[in-house]
Design a protein that fits this description.
InterPro entries: DgoD-like, Enolase-like_C_sf, Enolase-like_N, Enolase_C-like, Mandelate_racemase_C, Mandelate_racemase_N_dom. By secondary structure, the chain is an alpha/beta fold. Helices cover about 35% and strands about 15% of the residues.
Length: about 400
């Protein structure tokens, strides 16, 4: 079998919790569709001379990665798709002259690698999890996002057993309100990612303040390029720490794992380097008793399928991030849509990844931009009067109020 071509499918995905306007646009049949926000999904398909096609998804910066995919295509055409590891190495060294490309380079490798695993599974007539060593579990627990008591209670009513809130605006009061609303039988995590990122000193103080709420984890309490700061937080508080979504491959996740700076590693299934790398990252983490909870907050549904296969096959799978009340178009993008019951998603059993995209539907939503300022001014993330400074890291002011309920 030989690879004969690569096709890409870039779409502008609606934002989670879409506006009424976006939902109305979805219901019309005219094209193209214009949706708010800047979330893009990039899918690809590898074609072969035997008529078997593999599907993958790339995140990291989808509009940029699409160009990378087409640049890499000549290196893959004519190759045997069965040689997954060798092709991963070939792509990796081909990009070396451009420097350390992080999640953008790894995002391109991810979609290709994912499609290669899909082809191998289809060729052999088995699901990808079988190729990874077989199933450890049949269903994968998920958590969803909830920044208010109302959303948290809605998640609880849907049978979900864990939620995550986010943002650096008033985090202690937010967590306290959620805990009061859902009681003690629902796990709560908080994502403190910037901008603005907390200083290590502020993160230490905040994580200590969150200790009484017995959090599932505190995620990204400091900027991802300050791994030394995690040691300070480790010494300051006894709360599980999670990170890793902004790094890629075993090389990017190595320090967090080997120095046991986190309790939960969170590689992004769309930009970690592919199923090949996800399996290796999980094995590294297992040796340090670190759990795996893949990041999936902005990903499309093909990468979610890949995550289900990986989590089915590794012993240290903790939970999968899933915005189960995402943009309605998500359900129409993927065939079939994953089955979720009582906070659990069934592991696919069809050969390969077990999914495909609706190419006609995807084509209705051309990309309309893929970058933005992450937080609006009214989110309250920045100290008053400093929003237009667009700072990467900022010391918190009004500290007595901020660090206390």
């Amino acid at each position: 079998m030989k690879i004969t071509g690569i096709r890409t499918f870039l779409m502008h995905a609606g934002q989670p919790f879409s506006s009424k306007w976006a939902l109305e646009a979805l219901s019309r049949d005219d094209a193209p569709k214009l949706l708010p926000g800047t979330r893009n999904w990039l899918f690809l398909k590898l074609d072969t001379d035997e008529g078997i096609t593999g599907i993958g998804e790339c995140s990291g910066w989808p509009r940029v990665i699409e160009t990378a995919i087409h640049d890499l295509a000549p290196l893959l055409i004519g190759e045997d798709p069965a040689n997954i590891e060798r092709l991963w190495q070939k792509i990796h060294i081909a990009m070396m002259s451009h420097g350390i490309l992080g999640t953008v380079g790894a995002g391109a490798m991810t979609g290709i690698d994912m499609a290669l695993w899909d082809i191998k599974g289809k060729t052999l007539g088995v699901p990808v999890w079988m190729l990874l060593g077989g199933k450890v579990r049949d269903r994968i627990p998920i958590y969803t996002h909830a920044n208010s008591p109302e959303r948290a209670l809605s998640a609880k009513e849907r049978g979900i057993k864990a939620i995550k809130c986010g943002g650096v605006a008033d985090p202690v009061r937010k967590v306290a309100a959620l805990r009061e609303a859902v009681g003690n039988d629902i796990d709560i995590a908080i994502d403190l990612h910037g901008p603005p990122w907390l200083t290590p000193a502020d993160a230490c103080r905040l994580v200590r303040a969150l200790e009484p709420y017995e959090l599932f984890w505190v995620e990204d309490p400091i900027a991802p390029d300050n791994t030394d700061g995690y040691r300070r937080i480790r010494d300051a508080a006894h709360v599980p720490l999670a990170a890793g979504e902004r790094s890629a491959t075993i090389f990017g996740e190595r320090e967090l794992i080997e120095e046991e700076l986190v309790d939960v590693i969170q590689p992004d299934t769309g930009r970690a380097g592919g199923i090949t790398q996800m399996k290796k990252i999980a094995a590294m983490a297992e040796a340090h008793h670190i759990q795996v909870a893949p990041h999936s907050g902005s990903l499309g549904p093909v990468a979610e399928y890949a995550a289900l296969h990986v989590l089915a096959a590794i012993p240290n799978a903790l939970i999968l991030e899933r915005i189960d009340d995402d943009w309605d178009g998500r359900r129409q993008t993927i065939v079939p849509h994953p089955e979720q019951v009582d906070g659990l998603v069934a592991v696919p059993d069809a050969p390969g990844l077990g999914c495909d995209i609706d190419e006609t539907f995807v084509a209705r939503f051309p990309s309309g931009g893929n970058v933005s300022i992450p937080v609006p001014e009214d989110a309250g993330s920045y100290n008053p009067g400093t929003y237009n400074e667009h700072l990467y890291v900022q010391t918190r002011l009004s500290r007595r109020a901020y660090f206390n309920r």
